Amino acid sequence: MNNLWFFDNVNLFNLLCPHKFKEYKKCHNFDAYKKSDYIYFEEDAASKVYLIEKGKVKIGYYNEDGTEVVKAILTKGELFGEKAILGEETRNEFAQSVDATTSICPIGVDTMHDLMRDNKTFSLKIYKFLGFRFKKLERRLQLILFKDSKTRFLEFMKELCEEYGHDCEKTGDKIIEHPYTQKDIASLIGTSRSNLNVLMNELKEANIITFNRKEIRLLQKIA
């Protein structure tokens, strides 16, 4: 399966950034954020979409009891705030920088529509991207609601395999070189960091995975 977030490994930032188009370059700037800075809040006006030049951004919302639900953690080259393209007027989620230095490329919705209108192939790719992202987020939320933490973690490993995995020629193991911290992964599968650490060590003892800060190695195929 190809990396859908990058359109067959094409970085979205390189494809969409208005700074690369002469008619938009002069009036286009990047926005800088520090760790824990919010790009937008729930109920903010949805007038822009955003590309990540560098850093990481957390997308989520708060339940009625104040519990944070993390929908996605996005990295360099990825797009967020995309529902504005489809006519969303106010945000139903927040976007927050989780890196010390995050650089964001904001794109006005009107500009985005102009780019899509001028290139039908590009427009089709955007809608395809939106469809796959919505499907992926819906599936993750279903896992959080209805599956135990081990199942959620193993399903997330399947996603990481599709996006960041490659085979080790010597052993046949699947190596996942990913951009997430354990705290990121815990947030994405709806558990605590301590519970995730216990779970990963149990899987390590069962000879299913090994891991370090930068990679996870699958020693067995996940059903």
From TrEMBL:
Residues 147-222 form the HTH crp-type domain. Keywords: DNA-binding, Transcription, Transcription regulation. GO terms for molecular function: DNA binding; DNA-binding transcription factor activity. Pfam families: cNMP_binding (PF00027), HTH_Crp_2 (PF13545). One of its GO terms (cellular component) is cytosol. Residues 12-91 form the Cyclic nucleotide-binding domain. It comes from the Bacteria. This is Transcriptional regulator.
